[in-house]
Amino acid sequence: MYWHRLLIIAIAVPRSSNFPPTYAKLHPMFATLHSKLEGALAKIRGRGVVTPADIDATMKDVRMALLEADVNFKVAKDFCTTVGEKARGEAVLRSLSPDQQIIKIVHDELAVVMGSSATELNLRVAPPAIIMLVGLQGSGKTTTAGKLAKLLQSEHKRNPLLVPADVYRPAAIEQLKTLGRNLSIAVFDSNSTQDPVDIAKNAIEFARSHNHDSVIIDTAGRLQIDQELMRELQEISAAVKPHEILLVVDAMTGQEAVNVGSGFDQALEIDGLIMTKLDGDARGGAALSMRAVTGKPIKFIGVGEKLDALEVFHPDRMASRILGMGDVMSLIEKATKEISVEDTMALHQKMKKNDFTFEDFLGQLRMMKRMGSISSLTSMIPGMDKIAKKINPEEAEREMKRVEAIILSMTPGERCNPAVINGSRRKRIAIGSGTSVEAVNRLLKQFLEMKKMMQKVAKMGMGGLMNMFGGRAGGMLPKGR
To answer: What is the DSSP pairing of strand 310-312 with strand 186-187?
Structure first.
């Protein structure tokens, strides 16, 4: 059982504004790439000595892995050439751990190919900040407009205005209005008989007079790039002078998405991209190729249908996840969104004093469930990616429900002082929770182990916790259920 160790990590570190938001899990597209690169790098992992011939063979496998993941041919070739040259350096070959040095080079170059670090929206302008969404029909522009508005509202404390300017699909206008109502975000009133340029200009004036500091314009798309589409978009851009032109592309279309990116950039000089449908099972090469081919950063990724399923794209962290290095910072960030500073500090004091109760445990267990699946949380911890693959999500969910049922079958006094739970009480709790006495005994034993570890972690503080993950994550793992 792994969840009680994950719980320690999730609540061990107080909220900090230094942690940017990142991913809940390794999305299926990148999971495929991870699997292929893991196989390609297997030949050098654990090797104390690496020769130039080993590097050549590894780079050949890496190149094939990238191509099979639908990475652009030139991008894959340049990537392997750069990594190969750096890996052949004398400092690498003569180091004590050349395999780790080479994997680090692969990691760093992956991050560079995807953009090195996250690219922020240009919001430091005189209001309103104007964001224009463009893209082909079916790429998810309208839904993305709603998601982006929600993100601006919740993460940046902005007051956005949504603007339906797709007059060729009346359903798109109604869809955006519905999204606005669901999100309690204002939507500019427009209809399909109006000119898109007039809609955009009037919306900006409306925003200025109604204290909207951000405007998101949802433009029309076509089934393919054509002169009529580009001309209309150019006219809207010239009329409102947007601070950001973001291209919405469907990651499921693979390398075609890269071609679309290049076409829109030539006509509009886009500022960045939003890749949608990264929760799909395509091969992920488009996301890896986009920055290198277009020269434009991926600013956000869409990872689901829910209106909060839009995330800032962090290339450096994604590179770590692709190579199975984990992403502890992401795990911490998810925890900080679910628990307040005051609650965190109170929990730290309880942990230090070894005063953590089943009542506290129940609250944190429910918090962890809101953070995501056990397998997704496990995949964020260095060294645990293989374990994550072995976890049966359905069984893990059932186990957490059993644990919750056992705790709920305890009296308030028993939750605060588990030492009073004798044999007869254990039998009563087992019957009340629909489990067995053995399951109750196992939970009580795990709870005592967890309290001891929590006390250690609380005393270690942030630095000690991060050092623990910087080395062997296995020390945090249980040996079994």
So the answer is: unpaired
Around 1, how many Cα atoms within 13 Å sit in the side-chain half-sphere? 20
Angle of CA points 178, 184, 189, to nearest 5°: 55
**444 with 340, same domain?**
yes
The two beta strands, 244-250 and 214-218, are unpaired
Residue 253 is classified by DSSP as G
Cis peptide bond prior to 128, omega within 30° of 0: yes
CA distance 274 to 311: 10
Give 459's pLDDT tier (boundaries 50, 70, 90): low
**139 in Cβ contact with 248 (< 8 Å):** yes
My answer on whether 310 and 359 are in the same domain is no
Tell me the percentage of the chain whose pLDDT exceeds 70: 75
333: enclosing H helix or E strand: helix 328-338
As a dihedral over the C-alpha atoms of residue 250, residue 252, residue 253, residue 258, rounded to 10 degrees, the angle is 60
Q: How many domains does the chain fold into?
A: 3
- Residue with the larger pLDDT of the pair 453 and 74: 74
Question: What's the whole-model pTM score?
Answer: 0.65
Specify the amino acid at residue 450.
Answer: M
Same domain, 88 and 57: yes
pLDDT tier at 282, thresholds 50, 70, 90? low
The Cα–Cα gap between 82 and 117 comes to 19
Q: What are phi and psi of 273, to 5 degrees?
A: -130, 155
Minimal CA–CA distance to 338: which of 308, 313, 372? 372
**Chain Cα centroid distance, residue 440:** 35
> Does a structural domain hold residue 412?
yes
DSSP 197-235: HHHHHHHHHHHHHTT-SEEEEE----SS--HHHHHHHHH
Distance CA 342, CA 417 (A): 24
Residue 286 domain boundaries: 129-318
- The answer to whether 339 and 15 have CB atoms below 8 angstroms apart is yes
φ and ψ at residue 210, rounded to 5 degrees:
-120, 20
- Using the predicted structure, report yes or no on whether residue 274 has a pLDDT greater than 60: yes
Residue of 363, 236, 301 lying closest to 30 (CA atoms) = 301
